[in-house]
From TrEMBL:
Taxonomic classification: Eukaryota, Metazoa, Chordata, Craniata, Vertebrata
Organism, scientific name: Pampusana beccarii
Superkingdom of this protein's organism: Eukaryota
Protein's recorded name: ANKY2 protein
InterPro entries per record: Ankyrin-MYND_dom_contain_2 (IPR052452), Ankyrin_rpt-contain_sf (IPR036770)
Length: 210
């Protein structure tokens, strides 16, 4: 109750890191995020919806089954977790987070990271308590990682070129067309067509011309 009334993001984050469950419901069938939204504490909702336990990512830093190597090198877990838990989903912000970390801004590292993000997306959709929001977020970040890969491989200006492309506005009104196309492309490539969230996004975006 204190958490919801105070709207304290730091306390919310501390409780989540201590192991608070986000999908447990109260006596009226509402989760913590739903109750926070009900009382208008939208910052708390954002923190809850963007929380991803580090242990869930660390799972991929250990060889599983017959694998001899982990899917994610230990050194990449920290930088990737920072991006996964960010609440700023602007594509330029994500590219900047990649660019500022030398461990991430390499072709092989980005390849490993986006594949792990795709695995997490799949798990979010196939688990008993489906989490479409987190699945879409993982897919979206994966798409940006893959776009970074393209620029690292094909462009001399590398990630700087991607940032410039994302920020450049068209001549007549300054609208960032490349950025809009990247976001739409990521939505279009979401592999789970039955997802309610995807259908809502498509209905909202489809009638709007660039």
């Amino acid at each position: 109750i204190f958490l919801l009334n105070s709207g304290n993001k730091e306390i919310t984050w501390m409780m989540l890191e201590a192991g608070a469950e986000t999908d447990v419901v109260n006596s009226v069938g509402r989760t913590a995020a739903q109750m926070a939204a009900f009382v208008g504490q939208h910052d708390c909702v954002t923190v809850i919806n963007n929380f991803f336990p580090r242990e869930r990512l660390d799972y991929y830093t250990k060889p599983q089954g017959l694998d001899k190597e982990p899917k994610l090198p230990v050194k990449l877990a920290g930088p990737l977790h920072k991006i996964i838990t960010t609440t700023n989903m602007h594509p330029v912000k994500i590219v900047l987070l990649i660019k500022e970390n030398p461990l991430l801004a390499e072709v092989e590292a980005l390849q490993k990271c986006y594949r792990v993000l795709d695995l997490i997306c799949e798990k979010c959709m196939k688990q008993k308590d489906m989490n479409e929001v987190l699945a879409m977020k993982m897919h979206y970040i994966s798409c940006i990682f893959q776009k970074c890969l393209t620029f690292l491989k094909e462009r001399e200006d590398k990630l700087d070129g991607l940032i410039k492309s994302l920020l450049k506005g068209r001549d007549k009104d300054g609208f960032p067309v490349y950025q809009e196309k990247l976001i739409r492309e990521s939505i279009r490539k979401f592999p789970y067509c039955e997802a309610t969230l995807l259908q809502q996004l498509v209905r909202s975006i489809a009638p709007v011309e660039i």
